[in-house]
Amino acid sequence: MERNTSKGSVGFIGIGTMGREMALNLLKAGHVVRAYDLNAEALAALAGHGALPAASPAEAARESDIAITMLPDTPQVEDVIYGAGGLLETPPAGRLVIDMSTISPVAVRRIQADLAARQVGFVDAPVSGGPIGARNATLSIMAGGEAADFARAEPYFRAMGTTITHVGGPGAGQTVKLCNQLVCALNLQAISEALALGRAAGVDLAQLRQVLLGGSAASWMLDKLGPAMIAGDASAGFRIDLMFKDLRLVQEQAQALSVPLPGTALVTTQYIDARAHGEGGNGNQALFRVYDRMSNQSRG
Ligand code: NAD
Predict the structure, then answer these.
(1) Is 177 a catalytic residue?
(2) Where in this chain does the record put each 3-hydroxyisobutyrate dehydrogenase-like NAD-binding domain (predicted)?
C-alpha cells in the first residue's frame, strides 16, 4: 500500500506474536513503520511487508513521529527506554512514546516521569483481544497518561483497535489491564471446575458449554476457549507464561495497596502447577489440565 506522508510515522519495537500484527495494521493504514526486534528473522519477515528494518531502538525512533513498544515484560521495556541507545537517550522526533505491553504500573509512573523531564510524552496502552484481535485490528486498548498525549496517540490506536478508552493518568491503563487479566484467569478456573464436575457426572461437555453460553454463565473465555478445553487442545494462543507474569503484576500491585485478592492467589498457584508440568508455552486454556491431573483424567 502507498504510504501517506500526512500520516505519522512509527518506530515499532517488539514485533512478536502481537507486535507483528499491530505493525502490519499500521502499515495497512498508511503509516511508515520503522521496526526493531532482537529477532532478526521476524524483522526480515516484516520488511517483506513494507516495514523499514532498524538496527536499534534509537534508529527506529530517531526519524519517527512516535515510538511504540510491544515487549514481553517490565525489564525489556526498561531496557529499551533506559538502555544504551534507548528511547530516553534518543526519543522519537515527535516526542511521544507509547508502551502497549503489559507491565508494572509502578514502572510506568517512573518511566513517564523520566520521559516528561525530557519533554517526551508517555502513554501506557496495554491491549486485550489476543493475536486474533491484533490481526483483525479489533483490539481493546486501555490507555493511561496525560490527556494531550492520549489525543496524539489516538489516531495510531485507531489503526490497531476498535474499543479505545482513556482510563486515567499514567499507569491507569496497566491497572485496568491487570483487572482484566484477573477476571480472565478466574473465569478460566471457573470454567475448568464446571467441566471437571460435568465430566465426572457424565454430562456431554459440548452441550454443557452451549447451555452455559445461553445463560448468565456466558463468557468470552467459554465461547472462544471452551471448545479447545473440551477437546483437550492445549496449543498456544495467549501463553500460560504470559498470564503467570500478569498475575504476578496483579499481586505486586495488590500488595503495594494492601488489597486482599484470595481468588487471584489461588489461581496463581494453579498457574505455578501448570508451569511445573511444562505447560508454560501452552495456551491459557491448558489451565484445565490442572483439573485433569487432580482428578486423574485426560482429555487430550
Ligand atoms: P512475544 O514474546 O511473542 O513478543 C515479544 C517480542 O519482543 C519478541 O519478538 C522478542 O524478540 C522481542 N524482544 C524482547 N526483548 C526485546 C528487546 N530488549 N528489544 C527488542 N525486542 C525485544 O510476546 P507477545 O505475545 O507479542 O506479547 C507482548 C506483550 O503483549 C506482553 O506484555 C503480553 O503480556 C502482552 N499481551 C499479549 C497477548 C497475547 O495474546 N499474546 C494479548 C494481550 C497482551
Answers:
(1) yes
(2) 171-291
- Here the cell at position 46 is 516484516
Task: Give me the domains of the chain, ranges plus CATH numbers.
Answer: 9-169 (3.40.50.720), 176-294 (1.10.1040.10)
Nearest to 291 by CA among 279, 274, 266: 274
Residue of 7, 177, 224, 245 marked active site = 177
- Pocket mutation for ligand 1, best pick of 12, 17, 41 (most atoms within 8 Å of C-beta): 17
Please give the grid coordinates belonging to residue 187.
473465569
Residuewise pLDDT in 10s, the chain (300 residues): 455 567 899 999 999 999 999 999 999 999 999 999 999 999 999 999 999 999 999 999 999 999 999 999 999 999 999 999 899 999 999 999 999 999 999 999 999 999 999 999 999 999 999 899 999 999 999 999 999 999 999 999 999 999 999 999 999 999 999 999 999 999 999 999 999 999 999 999 999 999 999 999 999 999 999 999 999 999 988 899 999 999 999 999 999 999 999 999 999 999 999 999 999 999 999 999 999 999 888 665
Residue 255 burial (CB < 10 Å; 0-12/13-18/19+)?
A: exposed
